[in-house]
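Margin note from the TA: students keep mixing up input and output lines. Inputs are the sequences; the output is the structure of the whole complex. Example:
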Amino acid sequence: MKAKKDIKIEIMAIGSELLTPHFQDTNSLYLTERLNDLGLEVSYKTIVGDEWDNLVLSIKQALSRADIVLAMGGLGPTKDDRTREAFASVLERKLIYNKKLLQKIEERFRRRGLRMPPVNKKQAYIFEDAKALDNKKGTAPGLLMDTGAKIIILLPGPPHELKPMFDTSVWPYLQKLRKKYTARRTLKITGLTESKIETLISDLYPQEPHIQLTILAYPGQIEIHLTAHSEESLEKSKETVHGLEKNFLNRLKENVFSSAGEELEEVVGRLLRLHKNTLAVAESCTGGFLGHRLTNIPGSSDYFLLSMVVYSNEAKIYHLGISEELIEQHGAVSSQVAAAMAVGIREKTHSSLGLAITGIAGPDGGTPEKPVGLVYTALAWDNGTDVVKNLFLGNREIIKYQSTQKSLDMVRRHLLKKPQSKEN
Amino acid sequence: MKAKKDIKIEIMAIGSELLTPHFQDTNSLYLTERLNDLGLEVSYKTIVGDEWDNLVLSIKQALSRADIVLAMGGLGPTKDDRTREAFASVLERKLIYNKKLLQKIEERFRRRGLRMPPVNKKQAYIFEDAKALDNKKGTAPGLLMDTGAKIIILLPGPPHELKPMFDTSVWPYLQKLRKKYTARRTLKITGLTESKIETLISDLYPQEPHIQLTILAYPGQIEIHLTAHSEESLEKSKETVHGLEKNFLNRLKENVFSSAGEELEEVVGRLLRLHKNTLAVAESCTGGFLGHRLTNIPGSSDYFLLSMVVYSNEAKIYHLGISEELIEQHGAVSSQVAAAMAVGIREKTHSSLGLAITGIAGPDGGTPEKPVGLVYTALAWDNGTDVVKNLFLGNREIIKYQSTQKSLDMVRRHLLKKPQSKEN
């Protein structure tokens, strides 16, 4: 197929399990991103089972409306795997036995000390004018056929087989259809509301068609996905996206915690290491989630000393040494107790920083004065304490997540010597 | 449309964002489950953007191959929302302005103290012979049209609008096409390998077409989904599924921790409360994840006293009182240290049970003797200690998860007075 102006692409996910409530196609997200990198857009996605008539009809319709049909799944050895046969039927091509393919499949079994079961022989059949695609991670070879008018690509369903096969065999082939060079950058932001971000950057919204901006808002984190295309070169698109990134960073400043794909706990870990600081945490309503996130980063033992999950008042009093009077006077969910927890865990562990969370994660336990979602996050250091009062929305899980996000961000802003954000 | 033998259903998800790498249709999983409850299967799923020609062609092809087309998304007020118009064009129907619909939309804005923006007026248009579906959670009304030959259903995209609309307006309507009554049951298992489970139940595999069995295996948890259909009554299908459940439980016994949809931490919480037991935990490689899971259950403060995340050797020694010699002699990742942690946290908190985890979550820190994935889980009670040596596979996140799963399961088996499982 030659490059042309408007190439239509259809991705087909084939497998009856994908028509049940239990399974979902996720491969297409990966393929879409890689195709977008070439400036190619996906027009249709179809999911169909292994029922012959439905499968054949879907393939017919896909070939009638798309220039490139990328199908995945149904290349296995069982009699339910009919993708190869259904495409052969629609394309009126014969499936020819290929000795070299069989040898490769047999070899794969042999390396694992096994003999190839006879059913796998059917994976060695391919259209005469198609190219077999090597499968380094499984037995099913893929297939690529360019009829001049259409390109047909068949890939195995398992993601760990599909991705390397696409990257090594399909993507390089599709280069000839490349319309654009694509560069991406994702700014991750916390501590600013979505509407505040939009106010800050609205006049920077790219108007040019070769620039795309997508804002994804999650509780506690907002992502700005910047994509730049260039018809000339990758360098050009990188230049554009870096220029954009710079403009956005100028506006959003330290509210952007990463533009290199890092998680907040990674950034915090890097800063702690850089400043040779250690951290200990006292958690109430998050129950250990903060320590869990901190220790998701390999090597976190360099700076993370201890987390105490003092879920009950008794635990706060007996194990962290919070005064009973303080809790009686202000309640366990209060600015005063949050500060005392941060100071307490810091003193107990001699850490550089003490971080604490106390709040009401719900669904029960809220009152008009102290509603579900009220969470105090506190940070103590050698000569001071910061406490932020937060009111988070969402269910228990989301409130717990936002509490950890805010407290991690307090460490980050402190180490950057920036003021704390009061926004959620 | 009348009930007939082979009803083909197509679910269409409409929206250009669903053709990017960032968004995925999840509504169709919910709709599929609800349709399956009626004995109706989904034959095709299509995802298409708001580009007019592509949308119109997709609708045409859907109507040519399916008896019921269930489309979602693209019913909003913007000019990119074209689902209504595209269906009208394909069906050659006029969109008629409906005063009552407009009043409902205006009323919705009014209740929130707002005036309806003029663009929303287009949501009050509907085909003459179609039924508008009330939207209790948003402005976009849905649409249901039965042409005699086909049923067309248009639903809004946001899940919190789509689900109640489907349940209150569409599902009752589709009852007339009901082919079967469906009952489901999911057995959740931990502490048995998938192959062991298959050996135990292989002769119970249902051969009858009205029974379905799906096994979903995750690291640390295996689920057996049982579905029974009956053409007679819901009672009949429930009877069948309960009979199956009983047979499976007889084989799998206490390895099944729930057949009522509960999470393991819920079951453990229920048992702790039942036995009036309290629990304190000492975590090393899980970093707080165990406490996080325990406190995901509302009311867990009734039995969960404290978690200490003693990530470093120093923390184990200074804060939990583990002897320095013991760590030097056996290493922090050892049966002896795990037991001492469980005993230590129990003594410190006077809890009924002490639970501990120490291991190597990777990716670094493994040795030939103590590889990544080696995790000791220990439980201490008033007159004993149990320690299990585990070798988990997977990345850091998966090893952390399996460690919490195994330790929760130790509490469960202990309270059920069953022996600990040594399997992963």
